[in-house]
Input
Amino acid sequence: MDNSIIEKYQKLWSAQSTYLNTASFGLPPTPAFEELQKALNDWRFGRTSWENWAQSAEQSRKAFARLINVKPDSVAIGANVSSFIGLLAASLPKGSKVVVPEIEFTSNLFPWLSNSDIKVTTVPLKYLAEEVQKGYDVCSFSMVQSATGEIVDLPSLKQAAQTHNCLLIADLTQSAGWLPMNGDQVDVAICSAYKWLMSPRGSAFAYVNPTYTNSIIPYSAGWYAGEDPFESLYGPPLRLANSARKLDISPAWFSWVGTAPVIELLEEITIEQIHSYNVGLANYFLEGLDLAPSNSAIVSIDIEDADIKFKNSNIQASTRAGGLRASFHLYNTIEDVNRALDALRK
Output
């Protein structure tokens, strides 16, 4: 494997263990961490005004839009996935039918189930496109499954959705940052930034196809959802942005200070290069266990006491849905993978 393209960037991370747990949370590169520390110190000593921190939210919005090849005005900023899904669920007409994968992270499930006026069906992921053909208003799914790393067959799903007039809503939390994708392949694409975008928890994005924006009721709207936030501070009338920005919530400043530098760094490296590198590490790991390649940056294995073996070797990973979940990102190396394989062979 040729690591030369990535190696020059790896000095920007400072992991002190073998960290194979990006699917839980990503580690910040030095530029992002330093920006965040600077902002915290400025806050501590009163050296700046909040507008400087809020500018990071706009910088992040534009960078994320470039990352998934959409226009910035079609991207809303928020704090997490479930809040955005909740707005979508609450905006659906009574009697709407929604289908979701069976083993889906609950941030993309509970908001739908909480609306008693809509009908929610869950099916195994491999049958999702087939199920859409039976007639649904919405299909909501994770582009990459959190528990297993399985990647959705988006072309098949999109074909079924277009044929049957079904909205596609994708959670990119486990894919944005390593899996190339154009946001406009779906109707709505939502992403928390604290995993593969390696940002502080509390920053999230939602791309909304402009043709669908008016169908969403901005129940969480505040001053930052205004066409001009500084002209939306007090009193009526309602004057929201005429774009996805009407779904904005007031930015949690320091989360965004730590988000903007990371996404700009990922742009510089390119998602295509990151995808090749991450998947190469994951497949090398599986090959070392005599398992078939998954072509995903997240893998799940069923090996007795694997979690204990990792812990004893100072290797961080997770246990999800009964399997050991390992995830590979920019700061990981072939040496990390070999260390993990050695631990499992003990």
